[in-house]
Structures are given as structure tokens and as C-alpha cells.
Amino acid sequence: MRTAYKVLAYLVAAEVAVQAMVMVWAIAGLGKWVAGGGVFDKGVMESEGSPPFPEVAGIMVHVFNGFFVIPALALLLLIVSFFTKARGGIKWAVIVFVLVIIQGLLGGLGHDFTLAGALHGLNALALFATALYAARRVRAATAAAVERPEARTAAPV
Amino acid sequence: MTGHSSRRPTKAGVTNDSRWVLRVALPVVATLSIVAPLAWLWQDSRVPSVYSVMDMGYLDYGVGVMADTSGGGHGGHMQGDMPGHVPGHEMATPRLVTDMVADPPRPADVRVDLVTRQQMLSVGGRSISGFTVNGTSPGPEIRATQGQLIEVHLRNESVADGVTLHWHGVDVPNAMDGVAGVTQDAVPVGGEFTYRFGADQAGTYWYHSHQVSNPQVAGGLLGSLVVAPKAGIAQQVDVSAVAHTYGGVRTINGKAEDLRVPAKPGQRVRIRVTNTDNGPMKAWTTGSYRLLATDGTEVHQPTVVSGRSVTLTAGGRADLEVTAPRDGTAFRVQLSKATAVIISPSGVDVPVPAQPADELDLLTYGTPAPVGFDPAHPTRRFEYRIGRRPGFVKGRPGLWWSINGRLFPHVPMYVVREGDVVAMHIANHSGEVHPMHLHGHHVVVLARNGVPASGSPWWVDSLNVLPKESYDIAFVANNPGIWMDHCHNLKHAAQGMIAHLMYEGFDTPYRIAGPADNQPE
Known about the structure:
The structure holds two protein chains of two kinds.
Chain A: H1 2-35, H2 42-45, H3 56-83, H4 89-109, H5 114-147, H6 149-154
Helix pairs in contact in A: 1-3, 1-5, 3-4, 4-5
Chain B: H1 2-5, H2 13-45, E1 50-51, E2 58-60, E3 79-81, H3 88-91, E4 95-96, E5 110-123, E6 126-133, E7 142-145, E8 149-156, E9 166-168, E10 192-198, E11 203-208, H4 213-218, E12 222-228, E13 237-246, E14 249-252, E15 259-261, E16 268-275, E17 281-285, E18 289-294, E19 297-298, E20 304-305, E21 310-312, E22 317-323, E23 331-335, E24 339-343, E25 380-393, E26 396-403, E27 406-407, E28 412-416, E29 421-428, E30 434-438, E31 443-448, E32 451-452, E33 459-460, E34 462-465, E35 470-476, E36 482-487, H5 490-494, E37 498-503, E38 506-507, E39 512-513
Parallel strand pairs in B: 2-28, 4-38, 5-8, 7-12, 13-16, 15-24, 25-29, 28-37
Antiparallel strand pairs in B: 1-39, 2-3, 5-6, 8-10, 9-11, 11-12, 13-14, 16-22, 17-21, 17-23, 18-19, 18-20, 18-22, 23-24, 25-26, 26-27, 29-35, 30-34, 30-36, 31-32, 31-33, 31-35, 36-37
């Protein structure tokens, strides 16, 4: 379970990195397309079918990751944490999960209240750091447990 | 190995039990406490493989209903999850949507044959998979004169998902509304359907498929419909400009280029602009213009406007009047920044005018006139609150649109009785713009954000509701049947932003999904 916990936490962190990358990729594509004479407005934004520029895929990946993949990973991490014997494991999984929820709400809110978009970017860094920390501290705890077996028995659950 | 010693049952049974509780039971309970509510929400959001829109959501009779003669007066606010069918149904045989047709024996004045195909389109040098009507997208413009009976014979040659035709903005008899699964079955490949309706109100309208409508409309299964007034129009030139975006390519009348209108110097030109996209579009001009009509209804005493843009919501229409320049210059009507209608008798062009910061406010445009009923004393009041919240729709997790706090399919079925004066309060708390479209009726805007309308009666069938905005609208329930009342950002409709308006005692023989695979969104 420690391995599962670690892997899930690392995956959340990796996904946050992917989220940042695909958005900047999409915005770069948009800039290039507009520079080439393209006009981007609500009609184009909401149009269906083949996208006006290929980097639109970045937005689609961002939405899919943000709505489905990352919440699912965070939820799995939370569930796995219940079965993982690591001090504070549940606490950090809860923090990751809460940050993911906040991230989704900030993302949705940013469509109208644009400053929420800025906080979405800031919260992404918090989520990235937290997920990374959660993964690394379990690894550290495992190492500590191997080095000092008595530490394990002393710790209830 | 010390680490494993605690698993052995070496201590007293009580300790083992408590350890077992800590090790296994608690985590399992914690997991279930998370997973079980999610599983319940998930299953609750699923819709049956076949269902009637009559069984969807809950009945909303509104507030302030007068006592009625049937003895079952619905005083106050009534709603509840729909157990099956409407109370009125037990009392009498329901009237069917299919009964609501236009004068069957009357011969048609305008006959049109339309053939739909699924094919590749060439738009702006790109090849895009889409749909055609009679070989083109948009399809042919249907023109009629007020008072005529239009008969359209539809044949679906190759659209695999099936098609229908919805007459956007025309208050047709219910059976002709073209909503798959509500007023008819989708027309399969090789199938046919005949639409008949009176062109009773002069104006600019359009038609589009209402089967799998999000991809089909985006793919171009649409066309223009114009009903000319009997007396003719005051302008010398009458031109339609159907704006549509194919895969990100903006077009007018299907071409990714400006539309040049032949007009002589000094001639007045009526430009019938239709926004067939999912998002609002702004139109603005090099000089002054008048806004003659919105959504097929004339503005009362429209004044000359300059330096302001007109917003056309998704599905909305605006008739603009401009004058062809006499001084050898050109006049541009921008339909977004990308495309324009150019009126240039001399053949020259002018630069794209800057997009005005201000827009024409229809709440105050024109002068007041009677609306034909008393909206101050409605017999029913409804709420249509649009929100957005996390949850499941059709088994899929996400951040979804809510109507009155609930997610599809637990949405209201607004119940009215023929003759009702209906008031509706639309409020948008969802953070995104929504083009709200009620089928079969025109609604008049009474107020926006509590500020009463003070201009010409502002009649719409598609209303642009921005985030944080609220509208008070009213209409007369004078077209019996079952009508969609949905967001015309068809993506949002597909995401469950769909409610219905039904007249008491009505039912539909059609089903969503089912053998015809009806998918109106």
C-alpha cells in the first residue's frame, strides 16, 4: 500500500506538471494562430469539429485531466491512505484531495471571476508541492522504518 | 521482523478485536463513506435507456396560479419528483403533441424539398466533415410571404444518426417543432417527414436539425427562413447573412470571406443576420444603422445608432438597416472581427472599423408600444435559475449546469394551461453566458437585473443571459404542446441544460433513445 500511495501521490504531482505544460502549449498555439490572422472569439471557442489550430488539444487535455484524471487519482490516494500504515498518510492525502477540489472550483470560477484563475495557478503550485511531499515523506517513513524497526512498533497504525 | 509481530494474535481477544477494527474495519468504513455517496450520485444521474421527457425531473406548476374549474387548483408553489405522469392525465385522455398540426386540408403556398446528407465540406480551403441540405451548407433559404402555408418535405439521404428540422423562432404547431423524441422520431437514412406550418409572423428565422443537434448544427445542417411582410419591406435591398463557424472557420452564407452586397448609392439595405453558432456574436458598422427587428419581431420606432455594437446571442437574429454610401466609399457591417457584409457601390473597401466598447441596449432602444397582453398580472410565475456545480450527469462526473439547483435529469417541467400569462425569472449564477431559447413562443423582456424595460417591446426567442444577470420575461401560453426550454449553446444542452414547458393534459408518444435513437441534444 505504501508503494501505491507513493505512486499515486507522484502521479498527482506529475499530472499537475502536465496541466501547466498543456495550457501554455495551447496559449502559445493560440498566439501563433492569431498572429497568422486567425480571430478567436466565443463563436470560434465554442465551435465543434476539427480545431482551428492543433494546440487546442492542450485545452482538451487540461479539461479531461482536471475533471476526471486528477480527481480520480486524488480520490484513490485518499482511499489507499486509509489502508497505508504511515503516520500522517491520511492527513496528507486529505490535503491533496482538498486542494484538488479547490483547484477545480477555482478553475470553474475563473471563467467569470478572472482573479480566481490567478489563484488556480497558485493553487497548482501548492498542489504540486503537497503531492510531491506526500509521496516523499512516505518513502522517507519507509526508509526510517527499515533503519529503525522499533519506530514502527512504537507508532500505532 | 518486529514490524510483523503485531499482526499475530498474541494478546487478549479484546485487543485483537480493536486492532482488527483499526486495521481493517475503519479503513473499509472510511472508504465506503466516500465511495457509497459517489456511487449513489452516479446511479441517480443515469437515465434509462428509453424514456419520455414527461417522466424527466419534476413538475413545476409555478406560483400564483388562479383557482381553476377542474377542482384541482394548484394554489401556491407545487413541485415534486415526477412519479409518472401529470395529474391531469387521469382525468381525461391526454392530448398528443401529434394532434397539433396546421390546417390539414389547406393546400400549401410554398413547397420545398430538402435532402440532407452527411459529407465533407470545403470551407476556407479546409476540408471539414459536416452536413448539407440540398448539397450545400447552409441549405437553401426558404422564403415565404406572411400568411402563406409552408410545406417542407424532408428526406434524409445519408445522415447516419438521423435528422429532424426545427424552425427556430417560428411558433409552429407543436407536431411540426422538429424535436427528436418529443414531437417526432428522428428521420433515419432513407426516411421522410413533411413539415407544414403557417408563416404567420414576418421576420428572419432559421432551421436546423434537432437530432444530435450539437454536432449536426455545428456541422452545418441548417439554413435561413425568411417571412416577408405582405406589404413588402421599406428597404430596396434585402439580404440574408447567416453567420456560422465551421471547425473554427468563420463564414457568412457558408463562405469564409466577406459578403459583398450589390447596392446602388443611397439605397437602403436590410441585412438579416443570423447567428447559428454556440456563442454570442457582435455586429458593428463603419457608420450608423438602425436595428429593425430582433428574433423575427419588429422593433417599435427604431432610432439611428452609431458607435455601438449589437449582440446576437446564439440562435438569435438581428435585422439591420444601413444605407449604401453615396460618396464612393464603402460600408462595412462586421459580423465579429473575422467576417463582414460589405456594401460598396464603387467597389472599394474600407478598413475594419474598431469594435465599439459600448453596445446597443435593447432594454431602452425604440419606444414603448402595447404588447397585446398584461404582463404585470401573470397567472403563473416560474424561476429558471442557472447554476453550476460538481456532480454526475448521465453517469459522468464533472462540473455541470444546474437548473434551480438540480442537475439533469432532475430538472423542472414547467406546467402551464392554455391562456396563461406566464412570467419567468431567469437568473444566471453559473459564471458563463447562456443563450436561453424557448420553443414555440416569443417572450417579451420586462426587466434586466430588476431595471424595467423602457424601450420598444423587446421580443426574443433566444435571450443572451450573461453571468450575474437576471431577466424577467413574460409570454402568453397560446401554443399548446410540449416545448423545449433550453440553452442554445448546444454543447450546454448536450450537457443537460434542458428543461421543458408543457401544457396540462398533453403527452407525447415519442421517446428519447428507443428504436429511433432519438437524441435531441
